[in-house]
Specification:
The chain is built from 32 helices and 60 strands. By secondary structure, it is an alpha+beta fold. The strands form 17 sheets. The protein has a five-stranded antiparallel β-sheet. Strands 17-18-16-19-20 form a five-stranded mixed β-sheet, covered by helices on one side. Strands 25, 26, 27, 28 and 29 form a five-stranded antiparallel β-sheet that branches. A hairpin with a 4-residue loop joins strand 21 and strand 22. The chain is flat, with a radius of gyration of 37 Å. Forms oligomers. Interacts with 6 of the 7 known isoforms of 14-3-3 proteins. This is DENN domain-containing protein 3. It is found in: Cytoplasm. Pfam families: DENN, TPR_DENND3, WD40.
Length: 1210
């Protein structure tokens, strides 16, 4: 049927894609006359091995028979057809060394034509002596860049020629014993090089003791066993299985986007010095034509694959063929970048044929160019180079030294386990070193990447690098590798990148790393490493598969699946809720087994459980196919369960979402325009350039650049303006202030503008402008003379000073701290400096009055744009044009700058969470979480969580109110409520009906609660009666559903429904669950009964009183909790159009309102029932309030304001 075919095509690949036997058939052996013969494909074994068959009751089984996709197949025609055995002259059957199957049906994605050359890269020879078994490794890449991996075992088998073989002109005796070589190649989607080598080693032991007539059946049975092995999902669980005498371990991937790592990363460090390793990495990053050489074919793939891991998260984008046979050497003639490998014996012909190849001799440890004796490529940047070499030289790479003190292992599997543990430790250290190298080279790329407009400013990035590193970066920035890296950065965001960058072994080393690299990653790194859902330094668990059944019998395979399901169920039942990452892996594997065994509904249940354990490994494609393949009866059975019905609905919604055109996230380089720009294009170009993001500021800049002309900016003006801005920016960065001057400035203070040398009332020097003050850099002996801080300026006057017959334009400044005026003969610069100082003063005044430092930052931007406009236009209208940018100077004339005294005294600070957002977003929810003093040394400060209207959650350090660089996206809908459940869980209720669970340490979301059917509107936490009682949380949705949750297990304890039009929020007070709804107000004595009372809108339980605010009127109503018949008092809120939010702080109720003109906050005394304060909070309605330990109240405003205000509590 079509459904099973669909299942088969999309099913995740298991360990085995195919097993191929290659060599010389018996018929051809009889005819051979030379020792060097041509190999051919003899057998191909690929899933399915167990065919669909009827059960005893006659029903058909239509499901995937193994942990592998049933692949599309094609026929493969061999060179000749011959019988599989022959009869000798004595009349006895002469069994062939390996029987050749006449009909080969092969998976469509496997190229069997080239396989004999790759499995016998030295050619296949008939010899008179047996050789040792030999293993090597292959990588196949299709036209789409998808890789398949092969492990090849070559082994010798004896045979007796019937008619003799001619060798060196002599006919050999037909009774002489000769040897031919056969290859068994296991092909897998995953690079399990060590594990598959172990599998082949185990099989060859069995093969050498068995009869030849059983060979094909044995290979098929071996292949069928490997098809029963599931691939572990990314995370802390490895899969183990027995192939006697070995116990074989399949390591999981470190991360969803990392490849499997089943190889020894220290091999390149044994072959090359650290300096040579850096040369190889540099060659790869610059996309050179790289050729690895060795006399050992096995080393070629293993070493090349190590370097692919060393450059992670960057990915090689070109042909990757680490093993080339002699017949394939023409591949090296390709004109594009490639990474290939060949035998050292081909060195001369390869080097002579082509110039500019990077030739890497693994055996000798040399890196050369085919055109010279040394590699002429730019070095890796010096800082990164020195750090890497220092760390690489400290590596302990010799296993024998590590086990000197250990006793001998009497069990081979104990010995292998000890070796794996040592290798895992060494691999982790090497991964850290190479990732640190990547950080050192590329960490500041993000500073020059405009995420919103997908533009990377390569010129500015280059200017920020050391001059000696320019050649390296110029080559790297032009590569496909780097552009793919930018695309990944843009699609996956900053957290995704940094999650790759670091995983240290100890907290000490983690903290040390954060101290060393003061980049934008610092805060995120410390959070991710210390408390990510898991890291390589955390203990690895293993899950052992049951013993393999006879793999070619359907009933035994089904019994094996049932045993596997039982073992996984047992593992799930014994897992603790605290280790949800491990539990998620067991659910994933059980879902996989249930899918294979045809138990689709059970599989859906298992994958549904991933929402509560770890969404990162959710198999969306497989789930989509499972849902599509559900027979009608099973679908009805699934839809009878609400959670599965919801899952099926969501899968169908996601399928429609995937049907839309996919955004590939391509990042382009910033380029200056080549045609005239109208307003819309100009705004976009300026935002792409990174000069400024605010649309209003850019529109004012457009007006300034188009004064007195048609409203469009010509490309020459834009180019001149851009270059002038960047040159001024660079000049400011190059200002080298003496130590005696720096000690007068605060830590983050920088000089943004310097005048030319002028005469002033304090002497001759240059006037310097920072974001805080003006000061004079005196000439001669460099010194510092403070002129004024911007907030102290009282008067600014432009006049002229007579000198001989001239009148020199002079700027005069009167400050509140000095009686005398400061005078500076600024001459032609006078008008510009006057404009800039006025704007800075006005911005400082507004920033102080409104306690909003962003005003000062915006004023500084305006002043610098004035400077750039004047420098760009260089005409009489330049100063007039610059006045268009005097936003704050004009604003003080348009509206009173005075903030009401009560507001000014209560307001502590303002922050803008939409600083990097265009346009600004509404602040929908705020939540304060206290820090723990013991953890503050490692970043455990209190935090402010801010949910914006686009589903984005930002995090602020509540000790400094500074925004942390890490944020998390939880869906795309509005977020309605947040609740800190415990130290490991922060719940967020969303309009899309999900509750998202964030890990507060790693600031990552990989769990969801999906039981609600409508918008989640409220969350509440029940107080624990004692330290042994379990934590219980409540959630509600707009349809009136209330769910009671066990926090530790995330299981539903109870669910009930409140009859209402819209349930808005819930609170727990004195053992009662209060449900606030649009139509009425319900109090429930949780969890036993409830009482319906009066019509209310927003409620707070305080002491024995119920405070309610009306959403459509400026009124508060107060009830006694024991008498809910009518309110005993009503409080009118002047100029309030409706109450939006309320909280209790100490003996006050803070009420956030939608004002008739602006958003207001009312502070009401609960003892006297009077309004104590009216705070002019925001320019839009107050959306949310939260308390910070009763010391501060924080308010967030709707989109037109989009800011957070921090208020002092008295």
């Amino acid at each position: 049927s079509a459904e099973p075919d669909l299942m088969a095509e999309i099913f995740p690949s298991g360990l085995l894609e195919a097993c191929v036997v290659l060599g010389v058939s018996n018929e051809r052996l009889k005819e051979l006359g030379l020792p060097l013969v041509e190999a051919e494909v003899l057998q191909v074994h690929a899933p399915p091995f167990v065919t669909k068959e009827s059960s005893s009751n006659g029903t058909k089984h239509s499901h995937a028979p193994a942990f592998s996709r049933t692949q599309r197949r094609r026929s493969f025609k061999k060179k000749r057809d011959q019988p599989v055995s022959t009869i000798s002259s004595s009349g006895q059957t002469n069994e062939p060394a390996v029987a050749a199957s006449n009909d080969l049906s092969v998976p469509q994605n496997i190229d069997l034509i080239a396989l004999p050359q790759l499995c016998f890269p030295d050619g296949l020879r008939i010899t008179s002596e047996s050789r040792e078994d030999y293993y090597h490794f292959l990588v196949f890449t299709d036209v789409f860049g998808n890789q398949t991996h092969g492990v090849v075992a070559q082994y010798c088998k004896p045979f007796h020629p019937d008619n003799g073989i001619h060798q060196n002109g002599h006919r050999l005796n037909k009774l002489q014993r000769l040897f031919t070589t056969y290859s068994i190649c296991i092909i897998s989607k995953y690079p399990y090089y060590n594990a598959l080598r172990d599998c082949l080693s185990s099989f060859l032991l069995q093969l050498k003791t068995s009869r030849m007539c059983e060979f094909e059946e044995q290979v098929k049975e071996f292949s069928a066993k490997l098809a029963l092995v599931p691939i572990p999902p990314p995370g802390p669980l490895h899969v183990v299985f027995n192939l006697r005498p070995f116990q074989i371990e399949l390591p999981s991937r470190l991360d969803v986007d990392r490849p499997v790592m089943d190889l020894d990363l220290h091999l390149p460090f044994l072959c090359f010095k650290p300096e040579q390793i850096l040369e190889i990495i540099s060659s790869i990053l610059m996309e050179q034509r790289v050729v690895f050489l060795s006399t050992d074919w096995a080393k070629l793939t293993l070493v090349a694959e190590c370097f692919m891991i060393f450059i992670h998260p960057l990915r090689w984008q070109h042909p990757f063929v680490p093993v080339l046979s002699r017949q394939m050497l023409d591949f090296i003639m390709a004109p594009t970048a490639f990474l290939m490998g060949c035998h050292t014996s081909h060195f001369e012909e390869v080097a002579e044929e082509l110039d500019d190849l990077v030739l890497i001799d693994i055996d000798k440890g040399t890196v050369l160019s085919s055109s010279s004796n040394r590699l002429e490529l730019p070095d890796v940047p010096l800082t990164a180079r020195d750090c890497f070499i220092f760390q690489a030289k400290g590596l302990q790479l010799h296993y024998d030294l590590d086990v000197c003190r250990a006793g001998s292992h009497t069990d081979i599997n104990e010995l292998r386990a000890h070796r794996r543990q040592w290798q895992r430790k060494v691999n982790t250290i090497i991964l850290n070193i190479t990732l640190e190298l990547t950080v050192n080279i590329f960490s500041e790329v993000c500073d020059f990447l405009n995420y919103e407009h997908r533009v990377f400013n390569s010129e500015e990035f280059l200017r920020s690098r050391e001059t000696t590193d320019h050649e390296f970066y110029k080559k790297v920035l032009d590569t496909h590798i780097f552009h793919s890296f930018l695309r990944d950065l843009n699609i996956n965001g900053l957290f995704h990148l940094v999650s790759f960058f670091l995983s240290k072994e100890s907290k000490h080393s983690q903290i040390r790393f954060c101290v060393i690299y003061k980049t934008l990653y610092v805060s995120l790194i410390s959070y991710f490493i210390l408390t990510g859902s898991w890291s390589p330094s955390r203990p690895i668990k293993t899950f052992k598969l049951p013993e393999f059944p006879p793999p070619l019998a359907y009933q035994y395979v089904q019994s094996y699946y049932n045993d596997l399901i039982k073992e996984l169920s047992k593992a799930i039942s014994t897992s603790t809720p605290d280790d949800s990452a491990l539990m998620a892996r067991f659910y994933y594997l059980r879902g996989l087994v249930n899918s294979v065994a045809g138990k689709r509904v059970d599989a859906l249940r298992d994958f549904q459980s991933l929402y509560k354990t770890d969404m990162d490994i959710f198999p969306a494609k497989l789930l989509n196919v499972l849902v599509k393949s559900l027979p009608a009866e099973e679908r009805r059975m699934a839809e009878r369960r609400p959670d599965l019905k919801r899952l099926i609905t969501r899968v169908n919604e996601n399928e429609r979402e995937r049907a839309r055109p996919i955004d590939d996230g391509t990042v382009k380089r910033f380029e200056l325009p080549k045609k005239h720009l109208h307003m819309e294009d100009f705004v976009r170009r300026v935002q792409e350039s990174g000069i400024v993001k605010d649309q209003g500021t850019i529109q004012r800049l457009f007006e300034a650049l188009t004064v007195g002309q048609q409203k469009q900016v010509d490309p020459e003006t834009f180019c001149f303006f851009y270059n002038y801005w960047k040159e001024t920016e660079g000049a400011a960065q190059d200002v080298d202030l003496p130590a005696g001057v720096l000690e007068h400035l605060v830590t983050d203070e920088c000089v943004y503008k310097l005048s030319s040398s002028v005469k002033t009332s304090h002497g001759v020097g240059k006037i310097a402008m920072t974001q805080r003050r003006l000061f004079l850099l005196t000439e001669g002996r460099p010194g510092y003379v403070e002129i004024t801080k911007f907030r102290d300026i009282e008067v600014r006057i432009i006049s002229s000073t007579p000198f001989l017959l001239l009148r020199i334009p002079t700027l005069k400044i009167k400050t509140s701290l000095r009686k005398e005026m400061f005078e500076a003969n600024l001459k032609s610069e006078c008008d510009l400096w006057h404009l800039m100082i006025k704007e800075m003063w006005a911005g400082r005044k507004m920033a102080d009055d409104h306690k909003d430092p962003q005003f000062m930052e915006q004023a500084l931007t305006n002043a610098l744009l004035m400077d750039a406009v004047v420098g760009c236009l260089q005409s009489q209208k330049a100063i007039f044009a610059a006045t268009k940018l005097a936003y704050f100077d004009k604003k003080k004339l348009e509206v009173p700058m005075m903030v009401p005294k009560t507001t000014s005294e209560t307001l502590k600070h303002k922050i803008n969470p939409s600083l990097d957002q265009t346009p600004p977003q509404a602040v929908d929810v705020l939540l304060y979480t206290p820090g723990r003093s013991a953890e503050r040394l490692i970043g455990g400060n209190p935090k402010l969580w801010c949910a914006l209207s686009n589903g984005k959650v930002l995090v602020f350090d509540a000790a400094s109110w500074s925004m942390q660089k890490n944020s998390v996206q939880v869906g795309k809908s509005r977020l309605n409520c947040m609740l800190a459940v415990n130290q490991q869980q922060l719940w967020i209720g969303s309009k899309d009906s999900f509750i998202y669970i964030i890990n507060p340490w790693s600031v990552s979301c990989n769990k969801q609660l999906t039981e609600h059917r409508c918008e989640v509107t409220g969350l509440a936490l029940e107080e624990r009666t004692d330290k042994f009682s379990q934590t219980v949380a409540y959630s509600c949705s707009e349809d009136g559903s209330v769910i009671v949750w066990d926090v530790s297990t995330l299981q539903v304890r109870r669910q009930f429904r409140v009859s209402c039009d819209r349930l808005q929020c819930i609170q727990i007070h004195t053992g009662m669950l209060w449900c606030c709804k649009s139509a009425s107000h319900t109090a429930m004595n949780a969890p036993f009964y409830y009482i319906i009372t009066q019509n209310l809108t927003t409620a707070i339980s305080q002491s024995e009183q119920l405070w309610v605010g009306l959403a459509d009127a400026g009124e508060l109503c107060v009830w006694h909790c024991r008498d809910l018949n009518k309110p005993f008092i009503k409080i009118q809120l002047k100029d309030c159009a409706g109450v939006v939010c309320m909280i209790k702080v100490k003996n006050q109720i803070w009420v956030g309102c939608q004002g008739k003109t602006r958003g207001k906050i009312y502070v009401v005394n609960t003892d006297r029932y009077t309004v104590e304060k009216e705070l002019m909070a925001h320019d839009d309605s107050v959306q949310t309030l939260c308390s910070a330990e009763d010391r501060y109240v924080l308010s967030g405003a709707a989109r037109a304001d989009g800011k957070i205000a921090i208020w002092k509590v008295e």
